Amino acid sequence: MNRSRLLFGGSILAVGVLLLLDNLGAIDDAGSVIGDWWPLFIIAAALLMLPTDRWQAPVVVGAIGVILLLSTTGVADISGDIIWPIVLIAIGIGLIFRQRPPRQVSDDRINAFTAFGGIEMASHSRAFTGGSVGAVFGGAEIDLRDAHLADGARMDVFTAFGGTEIFVPQGWKVVTRGLPLFGGFENATSKDSLPADAPVLDINATVLFGGLEVKH
């Protein structure tokens, strides 16, 4: 099972259970509980970035989540005047020590990840099979307008606190599915008058506090 779907699906399940128990009177003020513990989503995003040899991004994202969690739960008396400068310092450290984002383009696949930055990639494959794209506190732009699809083409997209754009040519049928959590994805491709044998690109996306857009 996809790790991101399992983790964030479990998070949504937990929120739903809390709200249900609150409505049934089993617990008091579920909204306050959620308000106290929402930084766990940020920590979860950091965990999803592991294991990786690029330790800077997970550490910085996790540190931001821990700082916010200590503040919202009252474990540490950290005022907003202190929190956000610390967050900015953590992001600055991540940018200074950030390694060059890996970019791998084979003849038929794209695999890319970026954190605290941006990445632009294009494929000119005659039999594109898919790949994976990850963007955390950054953005990714994938241009497939000069590619041709192979049967069963699939892309996995993970976007947290950022955005991903995928450009496809006219005539492709794009199927988007996945988990938007405090974010969303939009399939803005043409869906009318496509032939029955139109090439199909299947996109499975997990979007956390960000967005994914597929367009021509």
Any key phrases for this structure?
6-stranded mixed sheet; 5-stranded parallel sheet; globular; 5 helices; alpha/beta; 34% strand
Layout: helices, strands, pairs:
Layout: H1 3-23, H2 30-37, H3 40-48, H4 56-72, H5 80-97, E1 103-105, E2 109-115, E3 118-122, E4 128-136, E5 139-143, E6 149-160, E7 163-167, E8 173-181, E9 184-187, E10 200-208, E11 211-215
Parallel strand pairs: 2-4, 3-5, 4-6, 5-7, 6-10, 7-11, 8-10, 9-11
Antiparallel strand pairs: 1-2
Helix pairs in contact: 1-2, 1-3, 3-4, 4-5
Could you walk me through the main structural features you see in this protein, from its secondary elements to its overall organization?
By secondary structure, this protein is α/β, with parallel strands linked by helices. The protein contains five helices and eleven strands, in the order αααααβββββββββββ. Helix 4 packs antiparallel against helix 5. The protein is globular, with a radius of gyration of 20 Å.
